[in-house]
Amino acid sequence: TRALLDSVAHPSWGVTLSEVARAISRGSRLPEFVDDLASDAARFGNALASRRVGFVVQQILGPAEARPFLPLRGRSNAIVPLVPTATSADGPIDSTWRLRVNVDVEMLLDGLGAE
């Protein structure tokens, strides 16, 4: 879980959000995975990473599973890009996570249903 958070917090390390989504999907097969990820996110203390991970968890597993990430979003109301390295800065705003969804979510999650 810490590696996932590091990957989201440091996009320049070359791990794509699609790869993070795939890891979350696979990890969610373990009963405590999402709770462990949220606990590690709280200790990690990076609100932007928590917002992005919470968004991905919600897309894959639903709002109930993403709920532990809500208190970790931080105080800032600034809207930030879901994928800071994406070529587009445009996209709809997700007000729950305070993210601009600047990538195609279907492409981001492509193939997760087949795993």
List the helices and strands and how they pair.
Blueprint: H1 2-9, H2 17-27, H3 33-44, H4 47-61, H5 63-66, E1 80-81, E2 93-94, E3 99-100, H6 105-108
Parallel strand pairs: 1-3
Antiparallel strand pairs: 2-3
Q: What report would you give on this structure?
A:
The protein has 115 residues and is mainly α. The protein is built from six helices and three strands; from the N terminus they run H-H-H-H-H-E-E-E-H. It has helices at residues 2-9, 17-27, 33-44, 47-61, 63-66, 105-108, and strands at residues 80-81, 93-94, 99-100. It has a three-stranded mixed β-sheet. Strand 2 (93-94) and strand 3 (99-100) form a beta hairpin. Helix 1 (2-9) packs across helix 4 (47-61) and helix 3 (33-44) packs antiparallel against helix 4 (47-61). It is globular. It starts with a helix and ends in a 7-residue tail after the last helix.
Briefly summarize what is shown.
By secondary structure, the chain is mostly helical. It has helices spanning 2-9, 17-27, 33-44, 47-61, 63-66, 105-108; strands at residues 80-81, 93-94, 99-100. A hairpin with a 4-residue loop joins strand 2 (93-94) and strand 3 (99-100).
